[in-house]
Design goal:
2 strands; 63% helix; 9 helices; two-stranded antiparallel sheet; mainly alpha
Length: 178
């Protein structure tokens, strides 16, 4: 994993090969996942696809989703479309796959495809459960639901979130979200 964060592609390849050829260790899902992440972050999506297709174990949707993220990051629309459709075929009820693919289309300004994929998602997925969390403060449990402004302290909470967001931006810690 350290190799992928530092962009050490050659080193990652070396140790992956050494693991197999030098030590006779058969890669498991986690090893393949690290290599796919390494290659994807470096923009080597086609190489990562070849690695996945040659795996001794069946790839999980997370690996394909990693590649789909890389396609968006690096602007590989055609490859992203292929992988996105494969993910949707594997799990047609997972809204994240539709949204990832729609994001690739949006970044490429392919608005008709964005609308098509979002429509397909709405057809196939009955409803999405809102994210929520619980917190206990002074013996009282508070439930927060994504987008809900009904909580008695929501005004203060959203003001604080705005302040936190501003501080993160000022510190230069805001990551790319488009």
């Amino acid at each position: 994993m350290a190799c992928s964060r530092a962009g050490l592609v050659d080193e990652g390849r070396y140790y992956f090969k050494l693991m197999m050829d030098g030590y006779g260790i058969e890669p498991e899902m986690e090893h393949y996942g690290c290599m796919v992440d390494l290659l994807a972050r470096a923009g080597l999506v086609e190489e990562a696809v070849r690695l996945i297709e040659g795996m001794a174990v069946a790839p999980d949707p997370v690996m394909w989703a990693t590649l789909l993220d890389a396609c968006k990051l690096h602007g590989f629309v055609a490859m992203g479309e292929k992988i996105g459709n494969k993910l949707i075929e594997l799990d047609p009820t997972h809204d994240g796959h539709y949204l990832q693919l729609a994001g690739i289309y949006a970044k490429a300004r392919k608005w008709e495809d964005v609308v098509r994929i979002r429509g397909l998602m709405n057809e196939r997925i009955a409803s999405k459960v809102a994210g929520w969390s619980l917190i206990e403060v002074q013996g009282r449990v508070h439930r927060f639901v994504a987008g809900d402004r009904e909580h008695e302290c929501s005004s203060d909470i959203y003001k604080m979130l705005g302040t936190i967001g501003l501080r993160i931006t000022e510190a230069g810690l805001l990551t790319e979200t488009s």
